[in-house]
Amino acid sequence: MKNVTLNNGVAMPIIGFGVYQIEPSEAQRAVEDALEVGYRLIDTAAAYSNEEGVGAAIAKCGIKREELFVTTKLWVQDYGYENALKAFDVSMKKLGLDYLDLYLMHKPYGDYYGAWRALEKLYKEGRIRAIGVTSFWNERLADLMNCNEVAPAVNQIETNVWRQQRAASEFMAKHGVCHQAWAPFAEGKNDVFNEPTLQALAGKYGKTTAQIMLRWLIQRGISVIPKTTHKERMIQNLDVFDFELAEEEVNSTIPALDLGKSLIYDEMDPEIAFFIGSLKIHD
Q1: CA-to-CA distance for 44 and 134, rounded, in angstroms?
Q2: Which residue spans within the chain are E strands per DSSP?
Q3: Do 142 and 123 touch, CB atoms closer than 8 A?
Q4: Residue 283: inside a domain, yes or no?
């Protein structure tokens, strides 16, 4: 497994297993399968309601804790200094862990400054190996970095062939923040798995269109966390290190597919901000 080195020296697998939209009843089995076939980075979140299943799989797998890289996320409802500290303890109890590898603020809304100060405290205490954010666009990421002591190690943003995030990726590279892609398959939007350009590349390299998309992101230096509940696809999604796309394919052919917008939801839309800011995941 190839690693990326975060801005604090922590090594993180460049490819991990995401559990977004995996039902709590399926989470343990899916994570057990992922760990069995070779994943070592597991990405969950309080808002996914499946931390307990992830924790149960980790407890059962028999893999040394130091060989695993576990990420979870703080939801907007629990932003603010004291709330964040409490929410972290809740997540750790559900996961059954003594420390966390990466803790992310899930969205750039609400009192994320208070929450970030809590994450800094937990990081300095050694309870978290690295801290970061999710879905922070460049301006908010710059502001957060400018006004706090610890810079985010990771920014997890929607990145796929329809929304390629070139400007965001360049900004993060310049400032030492690891770009991690959520929705690397665009949640299947626009029939992405049957897109003709990707199909042609898949035929050329003897790979699936999913593998072409993951390889393209990895060659850009972007970490990926694909999700699937099918074991055979878990294996396929890991099998992306035995070929390399040509420079023209990475920088010209696939970039021609960029729509420059999300087909999932627009986080710059005020109505989306209202919805996310008011979404409760617990009483």
Answers
A1: 12
A2: 3-5, 11-13, 17-18, 41-43, 69-74, 100-105, 128-134, 154-158, 178-182, 223-224
A3: no
A4: no
Give me the residue label for tokens 């999700």. Answer: 227
The residue segments making up the domain with residue 29 are 3-278
Q: Which positions are annotated as active-site residues?
A: 48
Q: Round to whole Å and give the CA distance between 207 and 221.
A: 20
- The answer to whether 84 and 111 have CB atoms below 8 angstroms apart is no
**Burial class of residue 7, CB neighbours in 10 A (0-12, 13-18, 19+):** middle
Cα gap 139→205, rounded to integer Å: 39
Domains in the chain, number: 1
Which CATH number do you get for residue 83? 3.20.20.100
Looking at this protein, which amino acid is placed at residue 54? V
Residue 153 covered by a domain = yes
Half-sphere exposure at residue 187, Cβ-oriented, CA atoms within 13 angstroms: 9
Angle between helices 209-219 and 196-205 (to 10 degrees): 90
Question: What type of residue sits at position 184?
Answer: P
Rounded CA separation 272/283 (Å): 22
Q: Which amino acid is at 16?
A: G
Tell me 105's DSSP state: E
CA 144 to CA 147: how far, in whole Å? Answer: 5
Give the pLDDT of the chain (283 residues) as one tens digit per residue: 899 999 999 999 999 999 999 999 999 999 999 999 999 999 999 999 999 999 999 999 999 999 999 999 999 999 999 999 999 999 999 999 999 999 999 999 999 999 999 999 999 999 999 999 999 999 999 999 999 999 999 999 999 999 999 999 999 999 999 999 999 999 999 999 999 999 999 999 999 999 999 999 999 999 999 999 999 999 999 999 999 999 999 999 999 999 999 999 998 899 999 999 999 999 9
Burial (CB < 10 A; 0-12, 13-18, 19+), residue 45, is buried
